[in-house]
Amino acid sequence: MKLVLLIPLGLLAFARGDFVKYDDYTVYKAIPENENQLATLKSLQHDITFQLDFWTEPKKVGIPVDIMVPPERKEYVQDTFERHQIKYDVMIENVQSRIDEEKLSNEQSKLSTEDFNWSKYHTLEEINNWLMLLTKTYPDKVTLVNGGSSYEGRKILGVKVSFRPGNENKTVWIDSLIHAREWIAGATSTFILNQLLTSTNSTIRSTAESHDWYFFPVINPDGYAYTHSNDRMWRKTRTPYGRCFGTDPNRNWDYKWSDGGSTNDPCSDVYAGPKPFSEIETRSLSEYMKGVAKQLELFITFHSYSQLMLIPYGHTTAHLDNYNITYPVGLKAVASLAQKYGTQYSVGDIAEIIYVATGSNMDWLKANYHVPFAYAYELRDQGQYGFLLPTEQIVPTGEETLDSIITILKEADKYID
Ligand SMILES: *[C@@H]1O[C@H](CO)[C@@H](O)[C@H](O)[C@H]1NC(C)=O
Ligand SMILES: *[C@@H]1O[C@H](CO)[C@@H](O)[C@H](O)[C@H]1NC(C)=O
Ligand SMILES: *[C@@H]1O[C@H](CO)[C@@H](O)[C@H](O)[C@H]1NC(C)=O
Ligand SMILES: *[C@@H]1O[C@H](CO)[C@@H](O)[C@H](O)[C@H]1NC(C)=O
Ligand SMILES: [Zn+2]
After folding, report:
1. Which residue spans traverse the membrane (predicted)?
2. What's the 341 CA to ligand 4 centre distance in angstroms?
């Protein structure tokens, strides 16, 4: 009986070949107010028979933790909160109805399959087709590039955008969807790419044209395809490991690998993989990055959610490298991000403001290639919708995020020129 309980949802879905349902799954927002309550939440997270999906991790006292709980565990989890006097709210009553709403909103967007805009979340195929279309629309500016490949044989497609020669030492890298379920991340990177190509705003134009750009909207293509075909809440790659699937591709890079904030359990959502670069996605993309890393002025990777701007590194709270420059620039960036819609972000070292997490693409790049400016964004929101951010928020999220990038580059250019 116990063994049956341990079979993860993903595997059952794979066996049945249908969509994982989250009927009556509830997301609670719990706020630890002292160390004991924080420890209680951490042990709930690590309960091996429960395998609860923590949408955000227990970080520190005072910072809310979002936990998705299946119907049969709700009573136990609520009892646990009450026994330890942990304050909590229901954030999402029924996760499946949110997923259904998102699906409906995607279907109702009235876009024909060849059309691409930011009124919906697009599939991998739609995104890749759009990238290819850009190379035809802007043949002198946009080049299709192949950043690597996936376990299931997909390509990690990207584009290089260059408006004129001479910008090679001012290159910007933007990637997204290393974590499959963080859909707003891919919508934001494609929004920004489109703005750089089409905007008539003079500030956007001059920023676009004075840099070279690499965009890789979906760097975990198998995982992202799987969130559309089988399980909206999938995070990892799809490599089989025993009875479970996938490595967390943002715990798999070869810098401080498995040095905290990941696990050696293939069923866990933060499985670091059997060895550094065990995943073909991270290995092949890292090979590609080596070729451009020395030219990078700015590296950005989009995640969701929590509204944070994170600076290397994830293994230590020490302020290493040029933190004393990137931190004040980050503060300016989030101030400009807040201007349009009032969206508030916090800035800081990964280990300091979220939690120890090792093996990320950003840390690998910063440590090996000393890219002057490197930031990981945790985009909107702060847990109202979590990973299921409504499609109406795609455009505002893209706009405010682009504002922050313009500010970063204005500052960063001072150090490059
Ligand atoms: C996307 O296209 C649809 C159909 O043409 C249109 O109704 C909608 O306003 C567009 N949305 C955006 C954000 O451009
Ligand atoms: C870019 O940097 C390299 C190495 O410092 C240098 O040789 C090259 O001339 C630079 N290119 C431009 C356009 O400044
Ligand atoms: C940052 O720290 C370095 C090394 O400690 C120092 O040389 C530099 O002046 C500092 N820069 C700023 C802007 O504080
Ligand atoms: C142009 O874009 C910048 C950056 O997003 C913004 O601050 C500015 O208000 C825009 N200008 C106009 C005329 O819309
Ligand atoms: Zn993420």
Report:
1. none
2. 14
* Same domain as 368, residue 262: yes
State the distance from the centre of ligand 5 to the C-alpha of 271, rounded, in angstroms.
13
| Residue 11 lies inside a defined structural domain of this protein | no
Mutate to test the pocket of ligand 2, among 168, 169, 370 (most ligand atoms within 8 A of CB): 169
Cβ contact 35:58 at 8 Å? no
Provide the residue range defining the domain that includes 192. Answer: 116-416
Find out whether the beta carbon of 194 lies less than 6 Å from any atom of ligand 1. no
Query: How many domains is the chain partitioned into structurally?
Result: 2
- Residue 335, domain member (yes or no): yes
Query: Does the beta carbon of 168 sit less than 6 angstroms from any atom of ligand 2?
Result: yes
Q: Which ligand lies nearest to the CA atom of residue 162 in the structure?
A: 2
Q: Kindly report the protein residue whose alpha carbon is nearest to atom 1 of ligand 4.
A: 201
> Are residues 223 and 74 part of one domain?
no
Per-residue pLDDT of the chain (417 residues; tens, 9 = 90+): 333 344 444 444 444 458 999 999 999 999 999 999 999 999 999 888 888 999 999 988 999 999 999 999 999 999 999 999 999 999 999 999 999 999 999 888 777 766 899 999 999 999 999 999 999 999 999 999 999 999 999 999 999 999 999 999 999 999 999 999 999 999 999 999 999 999 999 999 999 999 999 999 999 999 999 999 999 999 999 999 999 999 999 999 999 998 888 889 999 999 999 999 999 999 999 999 999 999 999 999 999 999 999 999 988 888 889 999 999 999 999 999 999 999 999 999 888 887 788 999 999 999 999 999 999 999 999 999 999 999 999 999 999 999 999 999 999 999 876
- 66 and 121 both lie in a single domain: no
Which ligand is in closest contact with the Cα of 202? Answer: 4
CB proximity list for 69: less than 8 A, separation 6 or greater: 25, 26, 27, 28, 52, 77
User: Phi and psi for 95 in degrees, rounded to 5?
Assistant: -60, -40
Sign of CA dihedral 167, 168, 172, 174: positive
140 and 192 in a single domain? The answer is yes
Residue 292, CA distances (Å) to 119, 143, 218, 219 in order: 33, 15, 18, 16
Give the Å distance between the CA of 394 and the centre of ligand 1: 12
Residue 211 lies in a domain: yes
CATH, residue 38: 3.30.70.340
213 with 318, same domain? yes
Do both 170 and 290 map to the same domain? Answer: yes
Q: What is the pTM of this model?
A: 0.94
